[in-house]
Specification:
The protein has 166 residues and is mainly β.
């Protein structure tokens, strides 16, 4: 006869809220216990937080997108199993409104919505660097970027140009 150790079965489910996913492990050990768990969240931009060894982790993703989550379980006999599932991190749309073409010396009220916080860059020609509304009065055609942040810690970038006509 030949001894073949029981093999574990990796399994998990998840729920997503903005940029945060909660993972529920449902792996089966086929022996007394699972010895270890190794989660890889497929999100290298999150640094050291890209992996976890706890049973039911929570991960805050660095951005929107599709991420391949891998769980590797090791049973009490040392046998391993893994499972990969794709998690889609979708954020509400961010909208920009206002006149993006102005005459020299004029200004335009710009508003952005859909997120919880906003940082405008560069500051040149703007009435503020944060908030949902600014007055843009650049002296020449200028490209701006707005970083929109969401609950849970992720953000998106919108880049637009205010054209100054003579």
């Amino acid at each position: 006869w030949k001894y073949i150790p029981d093999k574990p079965t990796a399994a998990f489910s998840f729920s997503v809220n903005n940029c945060t996913a909660n993972f529920t492990n449902s792996s089966l050990s086929n022996c007394n216990e699972i010895k270890s768990y190794l989660w890889d969240f497929g999100d290298p931009a999150s640094g050291a937080g890209n992996q976890s060894t706890i049973v039911n982790p929570t991960h805050q993703f660095s951005s929107a997108g599709n991420f391949n989550i891998k769980l590797v379980v090791t049973s009490c006999t040392g046998s391993k199993d893994s499972l990969v599932q794709t998690v889609a991190i979708n954020l509400p749309p961010v909208t920009l409104s206002g006149n993006l073409s102005i005459c020299s010396g004029d200004s335009s009220s710009l508003s952005i919505g859909g997120a919880s916080g906003y940082i405008w860059q560069p500051y040149s020609g703007l009435s503020a660097t944060s908030g949902a509304s600014v007055i843009a009065k650049p002296s020449s055609t200028t490209e701006y970027t707005v970083t929109s942040s969401f609950p849970g810690g992720c953000s998106t970038l919108i880049t637009f140009t205010v054209v100054v006509n003579s």
